[in-house]
Write a structure and sequence with these properties.
Largest sheet: 10 strands, antiparallel
Shape: elongated
Number of helices: 2
Structural class: mainly beta
Number of strands: 19
């Protein structure tokens, strides 16, 4: 009888210990906001007691990183599953993500007519104001080329269908714009207004600081 009680007590103790061993819990922070194709989507790990990870992104993509970044090439709704493993078992969790195609360059491409103001802060005798055009051509969904009377440059659209901005400055041509260091620009889809400001120096005027501003409307 005593042996039976002792055996029962041992079973209860081991059962209690086994029940108190915590199992891993799969968790990732669901990306928020508008999710766009060809843009990096970040999955942040919030799992507990996990030491092995396997993400399935729903488009034949996989990752074993705890907090991976993934790009989707197509629109649609994708089931993302995270499977985790730990010393005391496994767990998994799934979420559905909707990926959209937002072709911002479709909005901004075209010809604009407006006013240019060129200022030279340390030599105002070089200042100049004139009317002229600005042409924008798409490179892809987000990147576009801007041509102004002084030359051209590539940049990248950031924003939404109602309002976009751009601050990247790449592939400046010709030499006259080679010393420009930054650009800030914006476009309103509601009004068709485009503004941009290029800042740098003028190689044809002894590297004098130079600012080109344009304000125009899509024709």
């Amino acid at each position: 009888m005593k042996h039976d009680k002792l055996l029962l007590l041992i079973i209860i103790i081991f059962g209690f210990i086994a029940c108190n061993k915590k199992r891993p819990v799969a968790c990732f922070v669901e990306p928020s906001g508008i999710l766009e194709i060809n843009e990096p989507i970040i999955f942040k790990d919030c799992s507990e007691l996990a030491n092995a990870y396997e993400y399935s992104f729903g488009d034949d993509g996989f990752s074993n990183d705890p907090s991976p970044t993934h790009n989707y090439a197509n629109e649609g709704t994708f089931k993302v599953t995270l499977k985790v493993g730990g010393g005391n078992g496994k767990d998994e969790v799934s979420r559905h993500l909707k990926l959209m195609r937002i072709p911002l360059t479709d909005l901004i491409v075209g010809t604009y007519q407006g006013t240019y103001t060129e200022t030279y802060p340390i030599d105002t005798s070089l200042n100049n104001t004139y009317t002229g055009g600005c042409q924008i051509f798409a490179k892809n969904l987000k990147e576009f080329t801007v041509f102004i009377p002084r030359g051209g440059f590539d940049t990248r659209a950031i924003g939404s269908n109602s309002q976009l901005t751009f601050t990247e400055l790449n592939n400046l041509v010709p030499e006259r714009l080679s010393k420009m260091k930054s650009v800030t620009g914006s476009f309103s889809n509601a009004t068709g207004n485009l503004t941009l400001t290029l800042t740098g120096s003028d190689p044809e005027s002894n590297e004098t600081p130079w600012v080109i501003r344009f304000t125009g409307v899509k024709g």
